[in-house]
Structures are given as structure tokens and as C-alpha cells.
């Protein structure tokens, strides 16, 4: 039973994040999911500065780390182990991003030290879930890593990179950056959720 729960941690984390962001946004007057970053929920001076990390970053960090450790220990396969390490790094980045809030103005030209740390943590989070599907593509075929899952990994990578480009453009134009951030991160979480389900039912 415990092993089954552990194998589903990736899916649970994804669902938790969606519910957590939605719940925190409800307590943030006039919060706009299309125009604002998820991190603005925990930004300095926001109405949910302390609440958002408590229900999002900290428990999510635990879930990601537990799932990553579970993936690492599945079998003695270096590529699967590297995938597990990436997921753990994603969890650690989630903790750091929660502890060090971004500045109130996401477009500030002179970010604070905490905001810089937050941004670096976000970069590690992004890269970790870009590398994880690549490692699974390199990994040999197995009950977990089927041809179908490899094809899904390729599609997820393409979708993530494409929407990241759209998010960068939206950031420059200061329009719909929140929407494209959610789509881009959502593609990564979708990959993680499918990996979780594949492991659970393999």
C-alpha cells in the first residue's frame, strides 16, 4: 500500500499544486491567473505572502522529493536514477523558491537578493523537469519506459520548450505571462503525472 502511494506522489503533487494555487488566489484580491505569475502569490507584500508557501511550496517540496527518491530506487539504471535526482532537485528548488520570495514587481530592473535566489531556484526547477524526460529518452526500454512513454516524453519536451518561448515573448510584452507560465509548467507536470501513473500500473 505504501509503495503504491509513493508511486503516485508525482500525480498527487501535480493535483496539489493546482488546488493550492487556486486556493491561495482566492485570498488574493483581484489576482489574475492570465497576467500574474504563480510566484506572485508569495511575493513580498502580497496578501498571501506567508500563506502561499505554507500550502504550496513546502508540502510540494516534500512530495517531489519523496517521488524523486522513489524513482531513484526503482532499479539500478543510471538514467532512471538521474531522472529521480532531477525530481528531487525540483523539490528542493520548490522549497527554496518558497523560502525566498520574489519582489512585488516581477518586472523590476533591480531585483532584491531574495528575488535573485528565488529566480535561480525557479531556473533549477525548470531545468530539472527538462532534463528528466531527456534522461528517460536515453534510458533503455522497460516496463516503465515503453516506446509510447518515450513518444510522450518527446511531445512533452516540444510543448514545454514552445510554451517557454511564448512565455518569454509574453514577459517582454507584459501580457498573459501568467497564462503561458501555467501552460508551460503544466506540460512538465503532465509528464510527471504520466510517469507516476506508468510506474504505479507497471
TrEMBL record:
Pfam families reported in the protein's UniProt record: DUF998
Keywords: Membrane, Transmembrane, Transmembrane helix
InterPro entries associated with the record: DUF998
Transmembrane annotation, as ranges: 6-25, 54-72, 78-100, 120-141, 147-167, 179-201
Protein name as it appears in the record: CBS domain-containing protein
Organism whose genome encodes this protein: Pseudoalteromonas phenolica
Amino acid at each position: 500500500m505504501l509503495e503504491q502511494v509513493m508511486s503516485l506522489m508525482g500525480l498527487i503533487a501535480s493535483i496539489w499544486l493546482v488546488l493550492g494555487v487556486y486556493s491561495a488566489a482566492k485570498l488574493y484580491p483581484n489576482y489574475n491567473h492570465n497576467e500574474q505569475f504563480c510566484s506572485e502569490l508569495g511575493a513580498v507584500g502580497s496578501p498571501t505572502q506567508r500563506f502561499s508557501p505554507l500550502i504550496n511550496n513546502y508540502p510540494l517540496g516534500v512530495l517531489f522529493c519523496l517521488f524523486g527518491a522513489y524513482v531513484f530506487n526503482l532499479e539500478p539504471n543510471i538514467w532512471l536514477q538521474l531522472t529521480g535526482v532531477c525530481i528531487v532537485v525540483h523539490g528542493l528548488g520548490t522549497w527554496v523558491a518558497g523560502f525566498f520570495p520574489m519582489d512585488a514587481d516581477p518586472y523590476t530592473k533591480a531585483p532584491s537578493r531574495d528575488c535573485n535566489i528565488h529566480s535561480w531556484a525557479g531556473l533549477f526547477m525548470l531545468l530539472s523537469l527538462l532534463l528528466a524526460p531527456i534522461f528517460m529518452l536515453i534510458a533503455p526500454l522497460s516496463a516503465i519506459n515503453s516506446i509510447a512513454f518515450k513518444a510522450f516524453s518527446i511531445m512533452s519536451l516540444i510543448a514545454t520548450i514552445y510554451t517557454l518561448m511564448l512565455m518569454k515573448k509574453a514577459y517582454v510584452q507584459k501580457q498573459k505571462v501568467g497564462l503561458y507560465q501555467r501552460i508551460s509548467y503544466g506540460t512538465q507536470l503532465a509528464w510527471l503525472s504520466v510517469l507516476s501513473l506508468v510506474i504505479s500500473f507497471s
